[in-house]
Amino acid sequence: MSFFSEDRANELRTIFFESAQELLQALNEQGMRLEKQPGNPEIVREIRRAVHTLKGDSAACGYRELSEFAHALEDVLTDEIAASAGASVAETVLASADSFESMLTAYRRSEQPSSYPAVRVMIEQLRGTPVAEVTPFAPEFAWTEYDRLLISQHAVRGQNVYNVGLEIDPQCAMRSAALQLVRNVLEEVGTPLAIHPSEETAEPPSVIESALASHHPREWIEKKCHVPGVVSRIVVQQSVASAQETIETPVPSQATPANVEVPAPNQPEPEALHKQSTSLTNVENILRVEAERIDAVLDLVGELIIAKSMFQAAVSDFGRRFPKDALYHRLHDALGLQSQVMQKLQRSVMKIRMVPVEQLFRRFPRIVRDLSKQEGKQVDLVLEGENTDLDKSILDALAEPLAHMVRNAVDHGIEMPDERQLMGKSERATIVLKAYHLGNNVVIEVSDDGRGIDVERVRAKAIERGMISLEEAALLDDSETLKLILEPGFSTAEQVTEVSGRGVGMDVVKGVIDRMKGTISIQANRGSGSRFRLNLPLTLAIIKALLFRVSERLFAVPLTSVLEIMRASEKDVHVVGQHEVMQLREEVLPLVRLERMVNGTASEREGKLFVVVVGVGDRKFGLIVDRLVGEQELVLKALDDQFMSTEMVNGASVLGDGRVVLILNVPVAVERFGRADSANRSSLEASA
Amino acid sequence: MAKEVQIVGFRIGREDFGIPIERVHEIVRPMAITAVPDTPDHIEGVINLRGKIVPVVDLRKRFGEKQPAGNRKNRIVVAEINGRQVGLLVDTASEVLKLAPDAIEDPPQALGDEASSYVRGVAKFNGRLIILVDLERIMREGDLRRVSEIADLSATGT
Lengths: 688, 158
Description:
The structure holds 2 protein chains of 2 kinds. Chain A is an alpha+beta fold.
């Protein structure tokens, strides 16, 4: 490492950590596949390859402990051990993946990683597994110069030349005749250019090597050469694939190109190599870019949109003053074209930030496996809609809440197998993680077929904890009651467990979702499972918004949350309990006087009212505003969270004329000002 | 000899204040301030500083002026506080003062480390008393001492 500059080394490490994360993911996934299909050589090979890469990469970065660990694991990941040791291989791989991860974390923090003796013991036990065949079979194919000349001559003529290695079964009763037998077979499938040993020797040969020109495919030769009772193992490799290969080949061992790239001499696996090279081509087309750089571009696009609306405002002023001027029309057309391009530009940039939700979902099979194992439950995790795209920043923020919800589902939702059986359910429970687009939003659902949530118990507990009064409880419908579990200090679990009892509750989940301007809705049936649905905006950066005035102040709400706009008058407003409501077709629409947010109080007004009907989760509210201004595309800018943190406002944006407009956080505003009597706001306010 | 200290001076009421020039981004004329609901009392609102949304503190109200008068000389001093830009609305702001390091004294004992004090130091310049403002302090919540009080205490303490 010393010959790298410090910068270069750091860069290398950054790349290493990224790729190591992917390798670990692959290890986890393949480890779990292997658990289901113990001994599958294909899967073992995948795992071995991941471990091998990890070993090499970590060694290159100077992470000796990790490299040695990976080496030890790679050593025991042979097809033979995998075939005879069964499920414990998968167990070891998964445990090692965990240790690798902890080691990586330690390296990231520049700490010394621990040595994980328990996992080491598992590996050593695997090494000790009695294995039927241990000696690797690796014929050398050391052809003489004359042989190589022959080989290349045939290759030039476009013939396929194979290196065929045959191991003679030590138990073979007629070992001395084996050579002749093999010779016959070889002549049958092609033209043997060279056979070693070439003639009968005193000692019967244990290995026969041959260079064979043949027009038959490799598999066919392999099959033909398998003489039962005589030949125990076979290696068939393409020898000189290209005609450019000449006898001038400087190093004899390079006569077989396939051999050169085989990672370890005891693992001839040409198909595997082929796969690796195709995946490499894919990788070349993917750029890794720091999120910050993309954000910088997005910022610029945002400024551009502000500039565009400034320009737009100026042009329409001009048009008003000189409506017949030809210049106005040219400006107008140019502006139209510019807006189109701008829209495409913006969409492309947004797309760069979009990542498939799969990046998040793929952690969960492992989490669910570990948890259910630990608790003795049987759980299948079903992932749906992994290709749904989501803004990277939202995706990152979702990781913790989602993990918490899945943990909750396994821990509290799913019953023990015997309990499930008693209830007439299948012993295996199912948790579904699902993502899909809904309009401009992304919905992520966590559902399970477990015991559900007992609404009455939630109600009783909320009363017991003093979160709501008896009277209030009576007014809450089931879905409102369920939302109480999102409040701080509420937990439906009777006991604290190792898994979910970390003091992190659903209130934390709600906090994160609130911050992302999303909503949570809960459906639960006692006995038949529950479903948590997160509704999130696709992106936080640029939104279409409805602008309106309240007490002469300009506000906006995301257009996606606006359902309709109505006109009404004060006499349509009724008071029910503590809520002001009005009739919206067959529904009762709770009203929110935003004036209260601006002035602290609200008064009845004369003439017509504008009511903006917004959807919050699965509920509707009517926002009473003074005047509608119109809809516009807004570039969302966060307010300084250090000096003026407020939940009430999502952010601000700058209009074409330079004015600042505040974007309301609808769910919070509705919660806070949804009551007719603000003096009597109780702890229930948050449940709106 | 130690380097001289450059201070941006501004006025609130009849008192002179100053902050180090490195902390000042720019000084702009007052513009429309958009009030933001549900924010701390001392945050007057936000302004659009060439596309950037910057919070503004009316330093005159912050320092206890009852009814700050608006006039043509008013300015917003955009300063950097904890790595963020914050606009400070003041009566007037114009001069850059060059102070010798030894012209700056610690705040007088009477002002002490009380929570309400935002005085980082006191400097004499051409016979005037200039109060060096602790920017981090003024952004914290809670009331601050009145300008007049500070001035009196500074005068008696030195």
